[in-house]
């Protein structure tokens, strides 16, 4: 469960369009995560949706949600490659919104920062599973979709205690070998992040 006492633990606001934006680019980890915008709520600035849709028969431009241009991408790397290309050619005034699991939205945030966007120009909304991406501080390997308080590192095989310390740069929670002092002595393994 998220701990408000850990300063590095991110907190998220509900999705909301920024009225002063020149344009809005809303990116979702899956099509169902896109917000349902009714026409009276639309600002004057143009809106685009991008979403991951694994069905290769519906890739490219589609129109959903009151005719808003919606681009479908096969997977997160596919979408992020196109986002990098797009942000390299964008101008000031675009606001970027990322919706999805924590690992996905922070991948989008890292890309936005790398392309020069300020923190007030991109907005993150966590939605879906709370499973974590864990970074092994010993071998620097990422282990995805961790749901328990103790996880086996996918790189070095160490039993990692999943900490609440979150690195925005790495888009991951820190994992530290839990039985370093006494090999094999593990606390009870519990489902902590459903």
UniProtKB/TrEMBL annotation:
Pfam families: DmmA-like_C, DmmA-like_N
Keywords per UniProt: 2Fe-2S, Flavoprotein, Iron, Iron-sulfur, Metal-binding, Oxidoreductase
Domain Dimethylamine monooxygenase subunit DmmA-like N-terminal: 5-121
NCBIfam families: mono_DmmA_fam
Superkingdom as given in the UniProt entry: Bacteria
Matches recorded under InterPro entries: DmmA-like_C, DmmA-like_N
Molecular function GO labels: 2 iron, 2 sulfur cluster binding; metal ion binding; oxidoreductase activity
UniProt protein name: Uncharacterized protein
Domain Dimethylamine monooxygenase subunit DmmA-like C-terminal: 133-176
């Amino acid at each position: 469960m998220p701990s408000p006492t850990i300063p590095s633990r991110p907190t998220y606001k509900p999705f909301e369009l920024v009225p002063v934006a020149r344009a809005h680019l809303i990116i979702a980890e899956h099509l169902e995560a896109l917000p349902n915008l009714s026409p009276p709520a639309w600002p004057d600035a143009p809106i685009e949706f991008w979403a991951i849709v694994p069905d290769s028969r519906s890739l490219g431009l589609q129109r959903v949600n009151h005719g808003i241009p919606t681009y479908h991408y096969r997977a997160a790397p596919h979408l992020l490659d196109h986002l990098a290309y797009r942000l390299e050619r964008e101008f000031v005034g675009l606001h970027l919104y990322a919706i999805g699991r924590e690992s996905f939205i922070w991948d989008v945030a890292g890309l936005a920062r790398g392309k020069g966007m300020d923190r007030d120009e991109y907005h993150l909304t966590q939605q879906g599973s709370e499973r974590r991406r864990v970074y092994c501080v010993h071998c620097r390997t990422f282990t995805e979709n961790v749901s328990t308080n103790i996880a086996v590192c996918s790189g070095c095989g160490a039993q990692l205690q999943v900490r609440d310390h979150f690195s925005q740069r790495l888009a991951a929670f820190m994992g530290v070998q839990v039985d370093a002092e006494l090999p094999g002595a593990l606390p009870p393994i519990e489902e902590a992040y459903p």
